[in-house]
């Protein structure tokens, strides 16, 4: 039986066009989903849009649209983006769907029945842009304007009747939960931040609002709208058919293995979400990974800062796989990173065109001229052949372990180092000088082709389309992808005829 693996992206606010930060969260999650799939797991991958709350209500108003009409349009942009990014998601949830509303109200009823929710009055600061409540200590005044220190977004004073969730009751239980589940929050630096936040004391959390209408109503009091984060977080189970806990999706895939999120929404996922679930007697997810930000210069890329790089424009100009490769390789996973056209062009030229693409072209055209597009007989491997091939067998388990702890950096380093070694192998072995020793020439080409097959499999979670093109050399398609086969030398088994393929990555001429 295959292990089940449930992975999610954050659900995006459709308040504006998607930008590179959103594309980043999705591409990262897709990497893990695809990796898990090809290493033998039964994967369920969810993405979607977070459509309620004041932020969306105001955005709709600014556009002179009814909230739902507005959401229908912009949610579609995100749906289209998930296609453009070649996400392998199984579902796309919208929080305006009836299935979601049903789940949220059910969860609310459980919490209220268990005495975890009570009615009182909220007076304090609220940021509509973050949909978050802030304490006095968490805000600052800049040019007479009160802002959140963490996000820089504007806060407003709110005073109204509100339901509260007894978050303060969960402080010790959460700390115990983090202690027992040491890898619940990754990377470790973020875990420490969360633990010190919880240790500093949790206050009860306002979970309903009265001053606007756009959202899911409290089932027991229709004057109140459920706090958009309680609503949004529930998407991770509503998409599995919660509250029908006997449904196969829920039974098989909850608790989630991994929520991929940005570090700005860690508190909601690592504190509020497990507290809501524990309070409702539902298992919390197994892991929350808070990745870094995509910066423009030194600043977070965001709509409010007006420094957005449009993923569609980049993909149009450079193609999708180069962008996916760049974001996974050049942004050190867990940290903030930069993207600029210049850096992307350098990466395409050096890694994709020179190191990867060129290697394939050289090997295949050498094969065509000297062997006639066939998989050659492998002779006896010498030490150099064995050395370069055996790394994959030796490291396979490590690679799987890297990904189990989201150590994306070690995974990509492994590929880059070995691609470099593969190029060096082909240069050093000089098959073009072995025309008098056809056995050796054949063996070198065999090894090089094996390496190409292994790289195509390893790169599939990063650059899926490119990998599929490369695998066409060996007449392989998506269904044939099994990562564990990088441990073996399989080419003779697969097919004896090979195919030429076109140029994978064009070098970018900086003078163009
Ligand atoms: N709707 C909430 C999430 C609810 S999840 C139950 C939300 N939406 S968002 O559209 O504002 O952001 C979604 C994701 O995009 C977050 O993970 C956020 O961190 C990520 N990014 C937004 N800007 C970003 C960068 N500049 N860089 C990297 N990711 C950032 O928050």
Topology:
Elements: E1 3-12, H1 20-38, E2 41-49, H2 54-62, H3 67-84, E3 91-94, H4 98-113, E4 117-127, E5 132-134, E6 139-142, E7 145-148, E8 156-165, H5 171-180, E9 185-186, H6 188-199, E10 205-206, E11 208-209, E12 217-218, E13 221-226, H7 228-233, H8 235-238, H9 248-253, E14 258-262, H10 266-279, E15 288-291, E16 294-296, E17 299-300, H11 311-318, H12 320-330, E18 337-338, H13 341-370, H14 383-404, H15 408-429, H16 438-459, H17 464-471, H18 491-494
Helix pairs in contact: 2-3, 5-6, 11-12, 12-13, 13-15, 13-16, 14-15, 14-16, 15-16, 16-17
The structure holds 5'-O-[(L-methionyl)-sulphamoyl]adenosine.
5'-O-[(L-methionyl)-sulphamoyl]adenosine is lined by residues 10-13, 21-22, 24-25, 50, 232-233, 235, 261-262, 264-265, 293-294, 300-302.
Explain the overall architecture:
There is one protein chain. This protein is of the alpha/beta class. The chain contains 18 helices and 18 strands. It has a domain of 153 residues: Orthogonal Bundle (Isoleucyl-tRNA Synthetase, Domain 1), CATH 1.10.730.10. The model has no long low-confidence stretch (mean pLDDT 95). β14, α10 and β15 form a beta-alpha-beta unit. α13 crosses α15. It is 47% helix and 17% strand. The protein has a six-stranded parallel beta sheet with strand order 3-2-1-14-15-9, sandwiched between helices. The site of 5'-O-[(L-methionyl)-sulphamoyl]adenosine (MSP) has 21 residues, from β1, α1, α7 and β14.
């Amino acid at each position: 039986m295959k292990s089940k693996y449930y992975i999610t992206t954050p659900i995006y606010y459709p308040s504006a066009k998607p930008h590179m930060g959103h594309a980043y969260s999705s591409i990262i999650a897709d990497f893990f989903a695809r990796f898990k799939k090809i290493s033998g797991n039964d994967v369920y991958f969810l993405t979607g849009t977070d459509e309620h709350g004041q932020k969306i209500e105001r955005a709709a108003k600014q556009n002179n649209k009814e909230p739902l009409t507005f959401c229908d349009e912009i949610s579609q942009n995100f749906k289209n983006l998930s296609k453009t990014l070649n996400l392998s998601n199984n579902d796309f949830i919208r929080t305006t769907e009836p299935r979601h509303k049903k789940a949220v109200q059910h969860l609310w009823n459980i919490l209220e029945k268990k005495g975890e929710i009570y009615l009182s009055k909220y007076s304090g600061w609220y940021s509509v842009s973050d949909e978050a409540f802030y304490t006095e200590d968490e805000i600052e005044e800049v040019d007479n304007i009160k802002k959140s220190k963490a996000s820089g977004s504007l806060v407003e004073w709110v005073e109204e009747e509100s339901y509260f969730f007894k978050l303060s009751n969960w402080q010790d239980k959460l700390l115990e939960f983090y202690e027992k589940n040491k890898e619940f929050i990754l990377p470790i630096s973020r875990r420490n931040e969360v633990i010190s936040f919880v240790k500093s004391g949790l206050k009860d959390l306002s979970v309903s609002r009265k001053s606007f209408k756009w959202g899911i109503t409290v089932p027991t009091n229709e004057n109140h709208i459920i706090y958009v984060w309680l609503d949004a977080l529930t998407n991770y189970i509503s998409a599995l058919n919660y509250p029908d806990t006997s449904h196969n999706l829920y039974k098989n895939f909850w608790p989630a293995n991994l929520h991929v999120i940005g570090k700005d929404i860690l508190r909601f996922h690592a504190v509020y979400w497990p507290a809501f679930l524990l309070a409702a007697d539902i298992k919390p997810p197994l892991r929350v990974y808070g990745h870094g930000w995509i910066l423009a210069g030194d600043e977070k890329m965001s709509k409010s800062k007006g420094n957005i790089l449009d993923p569609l424009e980049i993909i149009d100009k450079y193609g999708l796989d180069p962008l996916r490769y760049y974001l996974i390789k050049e942004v050190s996973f867990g940290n903030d990173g930069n993207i600029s056209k210049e850096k992307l062009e350098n990466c395409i030229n050096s890694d994709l065109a020179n190191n990867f693409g060129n290697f394939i072209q050289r090997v295949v055209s050498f094969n065509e001229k000297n062997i006639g597009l066939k998989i050659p007989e492998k002779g006896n491997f010498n030490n150099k052949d064995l050395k370069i091939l055996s790394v994959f067998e030796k490291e396979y388990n490590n690679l799987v372990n890297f990904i189990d702890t989201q150590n994306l950096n070690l995974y990509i380093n492994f590929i880059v180092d070995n691609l470099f070694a593969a190029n060096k192998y082909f240069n050093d072995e000089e098959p073009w000088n072995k025309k008098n020793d056809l056995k050796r020439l054949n063996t070198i080409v065999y090894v090089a082709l094996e390496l190409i097959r292994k790289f195509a499999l390893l790169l599939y979670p990063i650059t899926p389309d490119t990998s599929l093109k490369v695998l066409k050399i060996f007449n392989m398609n998506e269904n044939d992808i099994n990562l564990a086969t990088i441990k073996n030398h399989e080419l003779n088994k697969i097919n004896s005829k090979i195919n030429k393929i076109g140029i994978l990555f064009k070098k970018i001429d900086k003078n163009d």
